[in-house]
From TrEMBL, chain A:
It comes from the Eukaryota. This is 39S ribosomal protein L39, mitochondrial-like. It holds the Pfam family TGS. Residues 75-117 form the TGS domain. InterPro entries: Beta-grasp_dom_sf, Pro-tRNA_synthetase, TGS, TGS-like, Thr/Ala-tRNA-synth_IIc_edit. The gene is LOC100367893. It comes from Saccoglossus kowalevskii.
Automatic annotation (TrEMBL), chain B:
This is Large ribosomal subunit protein bL17m. Gene3D superfamilies: Ribosomal protein L17. It comes from Saccoglossus kowalevskii. InterPro entries: Ribosomal_bL17, Ribosomal_bL17_sf. Belongs to the bacterial ribosomal protein bL17 family. It comes from the Eukaryota. Keywords: Ribonucleoprotein, Ribosomal protein. Pfam families: Ribosomal_L17. Residues 1-20 are annotated as: Disordered.
Length: 331, 237
C-alpha cells in the first residue's frame, strides 16, 4: 500500500513538472495582470490631452465628400463614418490618412484628408492584409483562453502568411508532447471565434515604451526576446477584450467582421528558440461579414484547403515519431 | 384610312399561344391591331429601343424578328421588298433595314431583339396597373440596360477560391471525374444501386470523438504500451 501511494505521488509530481511551467501563475491570472497594466497606461495617455483643440478633416470620397471640424487627439475616422449612416459606418474597416494606413479607432492628430476603405472597394488588398492580421490576433486570444488552467501556454508570434496561402496562423508553445486535436475540439475552438464575433469587441491600439512592454510580457519568454531584439524605443500593442498582444500595422475596427470563423488545423513545426525544439502552429480561416451569404458547398473546399499544414515563415515540419525512434534505437 | 399590313405574308408565326388563341386581339378589330403593330415595328427600327406595355412589346417582338429574318434573304426579291414596305410606314427606314440591321445580324441566327421587364406603370395609382417593358435590338449603340457584371478578383472570397481551383487543377481529380460513368451509376435500375450501397459504408468517416466524462478502458495485458495519462481522461481544451 505504502509503495503504491509513493508511486502515485511521484507520478503526480512528474506530470506537474512536465505539463506546467516553473511559474505558479495560471493563464487567466497572467492575462488579468497584462490587462491591468494596459488599462493604467491607456488612462495615463488619455489624461495627457487636457485641452480640446479643433482640426479640419476632409473626407475624400465618391459618395459623400465633405469637410468636418473635429477634436484633436480624440476623434477618429470611425467618428467620420458615424456622421453619414449605419451602413457606411459598419462596412468601413480601414482608413487612409494622407496616404498612410490608419486604424479606424486611432485618434487623428493633424489636419488631414481621409478616405475610408472597405472589403468590396476596387482595390481591397490592404484591407485584406489588415483583416488577416486581426484574425490571427483573434486566434491568439482563443488559444490563450480556451485551455484549462492546468496548462500554462506561451504564445510565440504571428507568422507572416499572405492571403493567397489560404489560411492565417498563430505559433504557440503548448508544452505538451504531440497533442493532436479531434474534430470536436477544433469545432470548440471555432465556436470561441464565433463568440468573439457576436461580442464585436474593438481592437484598441496603444503605443508604449519598451520598459512597459517588458513589464507586460514578463511571464512570456518569447515575447520578451522579441521586444529586446527589435531595438525600438516604443512598441505598438493591441488589445481585444482583455487580451493584449504585440503587432505592427493596422487592424480592422472590431471582431464583428469575422463572420465565418473556423480553426482548421494544429500541427508541429521546428524552432530553435524553444527548449523542446518544436512549436505548435494553429491554422484557421475566416470571411468578413460582407460575404456571409456564401454557400456551404463553396465554403467547405476553402476550409479543406486551410486544414493542410502550411510551413511558410518556419523551418519545416517537426516529426516526433522519427526522433523518438532514434532515441529508442540509441538508448 | 390607311390599310395595315397583310398577315398572310408571315407564314411561320407561332401557331398557338394559349387556350386556342393564336394572337392577342388587343380588344380591336384585326386591321386596327395590325396597324398598331406596324407603328410599333417602325418605331423600333427607328429608335432601336422603345418602352411599351408587356402585351404590346411581346406581340411586336415576333413580327420584328420575322422582318429581319426575311430581310436577310436579300432586297432583290420583290416579295421581301414588299414585306419591308408594308411593315415600315416610313420609307427611309427600308434603307436602314437592308444596309444597317441586316449586316449587323449576319452571323446571328435568331434572337435579334431583347425584352426587359421593368416594373409596373403607376403602381401607386392603380393596383392592377400594366407591367412595362423595354424592347430593343441587340447590338444597339445605346448604353446597356444592366451594368456589366464585374469579376472582382481582389475580393477575399475570390482570392481563396482561386487558390482552391489551382490546387484542384494540379491533382488528377478533374481527369478522374470525366472517366466516371455517371449515366450508369445514377440509374434507377435496381441492379447497380445495390453495389453502390455496399460501397458507401466503407467510405464514411469513423467517429473517434471522446466525451469529457468518458474514459479509455485499457486491458491489463496491453498496459505496458498504453499508460493512462491525465490527457486521456478529458480534453485539455
Amino acid at each position: 500500500m505504502c509503495s503504491r501511494r509513493v508511486f502515485r505521488d511521484f507520478s503526480k509530481l512528474f506530470t506537474v513538472r512536465g505539463y506546467c511551467s516553473k511559474t505558479t501563475l495560471s493563464n487567466s491570472e497572467v492575462r488579468a495582470l497584462r490587462n491591468e497594466i494596459f488599462e493604467n497606461e491607456k488612462q495615463r495617455q488619455m489624461a495627457l490631452v487636457t485641452r480640446v483643440e479643433k482640426i479640419q478633416v476632409k473626407n475624400v470620397d465618391d459618395i459623400n465628400p465633405c469637410k468636418l471640424i473635429m477634436n484633436k487627439g480624440l476623434s477618429t475616422p470611425y467618428n467620420i463614418a458615424m456622421h453619414f449612416n449605419k451602413f457606411y459606418r459598419d462596412r468601413s474597416a480601414l482608413a487612409l490618412v494622407n496616404g498612410e494606413l490608419w486604424d479606424m479607432l486611432r485618434p487623428l492628430t493633424d489636419d488631414c484628408e481621409v478616405t475610408l476603405l472597405h472589403f468590396k472597394s476596387d482595390d481591397p488588398r490592404e484591407v485584406n492584409k489588415a483583416y488577416w492580421r486581426s484574425c490571427s490576433h483573434m486566434l491568439g486570444n482563443i488559444i490563450d483562453s480556451a485551455f484549462k488552467n492546468d496548462y500554462f501556454i506561451e504564445l510565440v508570434k504571428v507568422p507572416d502568411i499572405p492571403v493567397t496561402a489560404g489560411c492565417f496562423a498563430y505559433d504557440a508553445d503548448l508544452k505538451m508532447d504531440s497533442w493532436k486535436p479531434t474534430t470536436k475540439e477544433l469545432m470548440c475552438l471555432g465556436q470561441e471565434g464565433f463568440r468573439l464575433y457576436e461580442q464585436s469587441l474593438p481592437f484598441e491600439r496603444l503605443e508604449v515604451d519598451t520598459s512597459i512592454a517588458l513589464q507586460i510580457f514578463k511571464h512570456n519568454q518569447y515575447k520578451k526576446q522579441q521586444i529586446e531584439e527589435c531595438g525600438r524605443s516604443s512598441i505598438v500593442l493591441y488589445r481585444c477584450g482583455d487580451f493584449v498582444d504585440i503587432s505592427d500595422g493596422p487592424m480592422v475596427t472590431n471582431t464583428g467582421f469575422a463572420r465565418n470563423y473556423s480553426v482548421t488545423a494544429v500541427h508541429d513545426i521546428i524552432s530553435k528558440t524553444s527548449s523542446r525544439g518544436c512549436l505548435q502552429r494553429f491554422q484557421g480561416v475566416a470571411l468578413p461579414r460582407d460575404f456571409y451569404k456564401i454557400h456551404h458547398t463553396t465554403w467547405e473546399p476553402i476550409e479543406e484547403r486551410a486544414s493542410k499544414p502550411v510551413y511558410i515563415d518556419s523551418e519545416g515540419p517537426w516529426e516526433a515519431d522519427k526522433e523518438n525512434l532514434k532515441d529508442e534505437a540509441s538508448g | 384610312m390607311v390599310q395595315g399590313p397583310k398577315e398572310g405574308y408571315f407564314p411561320n408565326l407561332p401557331k398557338q399561344r394559349k387556350h386556342g388563341k393564336m394572337f392577342r386581339n388587343m380588344s380591336r378589330n384585326p386591321q386596327a391591331r395590325l396597324r398598331i403593330l406596324q407603328g410599333m415595328v417602325t418605331a423600333l427600327v427607328r429608335h432601336e429601343r422603345i418602352e411599351t406595355t408587356y402585351a404590346k412589346g411581346h406581340e411586336t417582338q415576333k413580327y420584328a424578328e420575322k422582318l429581319i429574318e426575311f430581310a436577310k434573304r436579300g432586297y432583290k426579291d420583290p416579295k421581301h421588298m414588299g414585306i419591308a414596305n408594308d411593315w415600315l410606314a416610313e420609307n427611309d427606314l427600308v434603307h436602314k433595314l437592308f444596309k444597317v440591321l441586316v449586316p449587323r445580324y449576319e452571323s446571328r441566327n435568331g434572337n435579334y431583339t431583347k425584352l426587359w421587364k421593368v416594373g409596373e406603370r403607376g403602381m401607386h395609382l392603380h393596383p392592377r396597373a400594366s407591367p412595362m417593358v423595354f424592347l430593343e435590338f441587340v447590338g444597339n449603340p445605346f448604353p446597356p440596360m444592366q451594368p456589366p457584371k464585374k469579376k472582382n478578383p481582389g475580393w477575399l472570397v475570390n482570392i481563396l477560391l482561386d487558390g482552391v481551383k489551382e490546387e484542384v487543377k494540379k491533382t488528377e481529380a478533374l481527369d478522374l471525374a470525366k472517366t466516371i460513368p455517371w449515366g450508369i451509376e445514377y440509374n434507377y435500375t435496381g441492379i447497380i444501386d445495390q453495389d453502390v450501397r455496399i460501397k458507401n459504408p466503407t467510405t464514411l468517416p469513423k467517429s473517434e470523438e471522446l466525451r469529457e466524462s468518458q474514459e479509455i478502458k485499457v486491458d491489463t495485458k496491453d498496459a505496458k504500451a498504453k499508460i493512462i495519462s491525465p490527457e486521456n481522461k478529458g480534453t485539455p481544451v
